[in-house]
UniProtKB/TrEMBL annotation:
Signal peptide interval: 1-19
Organism of origin: Maribrevibacterium harenarium
Protein name according to UniProt: Outer membrane protein beta-barrel domain-containing protein
Keywords, comma-separated and alphabetical: Signal
Amino acid sequence: MTKYFILPAVAASVTCAWAASPIDEAANAVSTLAQPNYSAMAAVDVGSRNHVDVMVRAANLTQKAGSDFVGYYGEYTAYDDTTIVGGGVKLFNYVSQGFGGQAIGTFGSFGLSLTSSDKFDYDRFGGELSFGVMVPISGEQLHIDAGIILRPIFLSSEADTDATAEYGYSLGVSYRLTQNVATYGQYTSEGIWDDSFDAENLDNGVSVGVRLTF
């Protein structure tokens, strides 16, 4: 099974004439790894999930390095029994002040997705929302990230009428080996809440691999 993630957008660069503050440096450390101008990742399955993604950085929305920018995304996810296809708009911010004054990266998205599950004989097409954070742990080398996703049934045109929403969450870690190469691992789980808000697992998996950035 394979996952593809594509984020086409327009690249832009900003040059600052003043010395960066500690929070700017932390923000840049996050944004350089998370959203370079170009990124490609290949990962092998160690559970029930393979993963490949290609990404192009979006244009900055402000003149401050590491600040907000927006892009577009498309994705295809295939687990053992579940397939999810989607795409939409993503917004990023890398100057949020987090633990101990440290900058954290935040990102959110809104799009459309199609879910098909052989396990539950289940299909759904409709809106999806996501939110996540990325935190530098050791300068520019080590980062951890976490994300959540929600696909409400009321934003759907086709769905299992016994379901209220789909949900998902992910936990990952990246370690930069060089300026352009990082190792990466992520655990992802997808599920369904029924009309009584009881949770049923759709699928889950772990993948590890290498990310190239340019």
